[in-house]
Design brief:
heterodimer, A: mainly alpha, 0% strand, globular, B: alpha/beta, Rossmann fold, 2 domains, 28% strand, disordered C terminus
Chain lengths: 266, 338
């Protein structure tokens, strides 16, 4: 309870300091939303020409796009502390974290909150809603719950990637760039059905970095395309939980990194 | 309160190859050498003491403080603070210590001081009554009111340090670690902070461990000093003892009536010669001041003489330059466990 109320207090402070420059805040909100509108427009252009991609229609792909977009923007909003961790470790702020009577993961997580990602979330949500209106998904209570769990899981997945990037700073301050391949690249890859990718690629992004589990497989289930896949339906239905598991594993990695910091210093 | 037993810390320092190819090779083979930052250091600090932990840059002061605060894990040896092992019980230990690093703030850069304090109140779960009482008292002693609503990033160095020290004491810690608390401050600000530390120590029995380069800090605050150099403990005892041990060496400054090419005197060491002014170092055990001046008067004509007691800065310099002498003297005049 203490941690939760403290977290909300941190978020409140972050929001207030970001609202201090109201005009720039509003401007960024809109510019982000409009950039991502163009982003989806490119996909739509592609479909104007080809009509279908591996058996997926434009609005089915729009559904994928909306899901992954929401997850990534949420992850950037909540996982900001890990995203910018490189900066704080260079400033030597990690010593300050270690002298406080709170967990290190909790402190890094709660220290940042990027409200302006709301613009990006709104845009992705709009695409998801339009896609939904064009598709005939028979929504049930279970399916709505399943969608929400998938979105949460996807958010956890991307936060996990940020955690890996942050943890690598305990070893070196340079290697962090490589994680962008998975984060920004992940959003791009996740916007298309995984069946268009090669075998090794699909398996890598299912079993090692479970991007497909939080986006593609849940969409298969929600869009009623599960039969088109050779895999076991139970595996597909349970797939979204891989995102939570992934975050859990990266948290262990984080702990290892902190131990390393405590034995080597910087 | 603080027990340090045979504490050591070794860092591996990696040799980085340069260039693109070099950084590729670094991934697979990395040469390193071991650097001993703290080497078998032992001491204990009792409740309510103020101890000066001194040494030149890179001597291992900060590394020791970091092990006492749970930031670093020792390579070997034992540490307890308030009965807690800092690196294993980091969070528990953190509740009972206050830490201030002079070089950097522990407050939130973009928040006003008051909000930083309120955040700390939440983090440490400080009861409202205690919080209000502390803020009132610290405000009275440090005049926080002048800048209580100012964001930390806009504070002057002196204000920031006052805010940081007050922040470190909000949760009534038993031990306060101060790493260079007066660095870069002007005389007035230094005096105010020293007075505050003294008062807190006297009124609340807060144990204080202080590292500093400022020997005024030491003279004003610390009865006891621990000297560390090259990772090893060199002296642990009363400041007055240290002074007594080393003050056997004195300085004699002489202004001669004219410039002499050879001003050497038996049993006295010429520290410097600048035109007609010459400074000698001598040990009263070998030659008394009167005899030395007598010997000088026999050979030269003088205008003025003065004898100086060395200040602590010189004392400590002597310790660093001449460890053997000190150890010998310590052996003669101190019990082994001092």
């Amino acid at each position: 309870m203490h941690h939760l109320s403290l977290y909300f207090h941190f978020v409140k402070l972050r929001i207030r300091s970001q609202m201090e420059y109201r005009l720039s805040f509003v401007f960024e909100l809109f510019s982000q939303a409009s950039i991502s509108v163009i982003d989806f427009f490119m996909i739509a252009l592609l479909f104007n020409r080809f009509k279908q991609l591996a058996g997926w229609s434009l609005w089915e792909v729009g559904f994928l796009y909306g899901m992954i977009g929401i997850c990534f923007a949420l992850a950037e909003m909540f996982g900001r502390g890990f995203d910018v961790f490189q900066r704080s470790i260079l400033r030597g702020d990690f010593d300050t974290i270690l002298i406080r009577p709170l967990g290190t993961f909790y402190q890094v997580f709660s220290h940042e909150f990027l409200l302006r990602r709301l613009g990006r979330i709104a845009q992705a949500l709009v695409v998801l809603l339009i896609a939904n209106s064009q598709l005939t998904i028979s929504w049930s209570f279970t399916k709505v719950g399943y969608l929400l769990i998938s979105l949460m899981s996807g958010t956890c997945f991307f936060i996990g990637l940020f955690v890996i990037g942050a943890t690598s700073c305990f070893w070196t301050v340079q290697s962090i760039e490589i994680i962008n391949i998975f984060t920004n690249g992940g959003v791009f890859m996740g916007s298309y059905p995984f069946s268009i990718y090669r075998w090794w690629f699909r398996h890598f992004f299912t079993f090692v970095v479970p991007l497909a589990c939080v986006n593609y497989f849940p969409s298969l289930f929600l869009l009623g395309k599960i039969e088109s896949l050779g895999a076991s339906p139970i595996g597909v239905v349970l797939a979204p939980f891989a995102g939570f598991l992934f975050l859990g594993i990266t948290m262990l990695f984080w702990r290892w990194g902190v131990l390393r910091y405590q034995s080597t210093g910087h | 309160m603080i027990e340090v037993d045979n504490l050591s810390k070794t860092f591996k320092v990696y040799h980085h190859r340069k260039g693109f190819f070099g950084s590729f090779v670094n991934l697979f083979s990395r040469k390193h050498r071991n650097v001993q930052a703290v080497d078998r250091v032992s001491f204990t600090v009792a409740r309510g003491e103020i101890v000066g932990y001194l040494g030149p840059n890179g001597a291992g002061k900060s590394t020791t403080i970091k092990m006492l605060t749970g930031i670093l894990v020792p390579s070997s040896g034992h540490v307890t603070v308030n009965g807690y092992i800092p690196h294993r019980q980091r969070k528990e230990n953190a509740k009972h210590i206050g830490v201030v690093f002079g070089q950097r703030s522990h407050l939130w850069f973009d928040l006003p001081v008051q909000e930083s304090f309120e955040l700390l109140q939440r983090i440490y779960r400080i009861p409202q009554a205690q919080y209000r009482q502390n803020v009132e008292m610290f405000d009275e002693l440090l005049n926080l009111g002048d800048f209580f609503q100012t964001p930390v990033r806009q504070l002057s160095l002196g204000q920031r340090m006052r805010a940081d020290i007050a922040a470190a004491l909000l949760h009534n810690p038993d031990v306060l670690f101060l790493d260079e608390p007066t660095i870069g401050l002007d005389v007035v600000a230094k005096a105010r902070i020293r007075q505050f530390i003294q008062q807190i120590n006297a009124e609340r029995q807060v144990t204080v461990v202080l590292t500093t380069h400022d020997l005024d800090d030491v003279e004003r605050l610390c009865k006891r000093v621990i000297l560390i150099d090259n990772a090893r403990l060199r002296f642990d005892g009363e400041l007055t003892t240290l002074r007594r041990l080393l003050s056997t060496e004195r300085l004699l400054s002489v202004d001669y009536a004219e410039v002499y090419p050879d001003v050497s005197i038996p049993n006295a060491h010429v520290v410097y010669q600048e035109d007609a002014r010459v400074q000698y170092r001598f040990s009263p055990e070998e030659i008394s001041a009167a005899d030395l001046i007598g010997a000088i008067l026999k050979k030269f004509r003088i205008v003025d003489v003065s004898i100086q007691e060395p200040d602590i800065e010189d004392l400590i310099k002597t310790v660093y330059e001449d460890n053997l002498t000190l150890e010998r003297k310590l052996g003669e005049s101190l019990s082994p466990d001092a």
